[in-house]
């Protein structure tokens, strides 16, 4: 079974969906949760993960230099021998130190098409611009901000969504399905990982990588 390290900074609804998929859904025969990690020791998602029976770990990132903090995180995560690093609302830009430690094995989910929107507040962006749809994107993380190879996308119909809460509700329902399904496909070798994503160490890309 593939060992997952799930990283979060907040609520952790994607983490819950992944744990449920491991415990009785599409990931059941394929994966196990090695650890749920947070850069915020008081993230609500950590408590939820523990209640679901997951091992948890945290290291506070506040006031820490990015490279040094990430080196410490890599050390903690390596104790759990993860095959995949699964970012689930992990609101931190990842340094090359981190990316290179797990090159080609870091996944992220983003509430928009990463070709159109990067970084924070994607649902606000879709709502404010009254977009008729958003495209949930699961991608591999490389050294750019939301530039990594796309593994899967699924559109969400946003027509008639009158509030930001409704936009988020529709989007998250798709996120929760798509993330587990994409991981299952990856683990089963049904999705091919572009070679470029694995060649991270010497590739001349931007110095910081993202959420
Ligand atoms: C999710 O909507 C996720 O797609 C988004 O943060 C939320 C975390 O919610 N991630 C990003 O915007 C990354 N750029 P959760 O803690 O309930 O899973």
TrEMBL record:
It comes from the Bacteria. Pathway: Purine metabolism; IMP biosynthesis via de novo pathway; N(2)-formyl-N(1)-(5-phospho-D-ribosyl)glycinamide from N(1)-(5-phospho-D-ribosyl)glycinamide (10-formyl THF route): step 1/1. It catalyses: N(1)-(5-phospho-beta-D-ribosyl)glycinamide + (6R)-10-formyltetrahydrofolate = N(2)-formyl-N(1)-(5-phospho-beta-D-ribosyl)glycinamide + (6S)-5,6,7,8-tetrahydrofolate + H(+). It is an enzyme of class 2 (transferase). CDD domains: FMT_core_GART. Keywords: Purine biosynthesis, Transferase. Pfam families: Formyl_trans_N. The active site is at 110 (proton donor). The keyword DNA-binding does not apply. The keyword Transferase applies. GO terms for molecular function: phosphoribosylglycinamide formyltransferase activity. Its EC number is 2.1.2.2. The record marks 146 as: Raises pKa of active site His. N(1)-(5-phospho-beta-D-ribosyl)glycinamide binds at residues 12-14. Residues 3-182 form the Formyl transferase N-terminal domain. (6R)-10-formyltetrahydrofolate binds at residues 66, 91-94, 108. Belongs to the GART family. Catalyzes the transfer of a formyl group from 10-formyltetrahydrofolate to 5-phospho-ribosyl-glycinamide (GAR), producing 5-phospho-ribosyl-N-formylglycinamide (FGAR) and tetrahydrofolate. PANTHER family: PHOSPHORIBOSYLGLYCINAMIDE FORMYLTRANSFERASE (PTHR43369). NCBIfam families: PurN (TIGR00639). This is Phosphoribosylglycinamide formyltransferase. It comes from Hymenobacter lucidus.
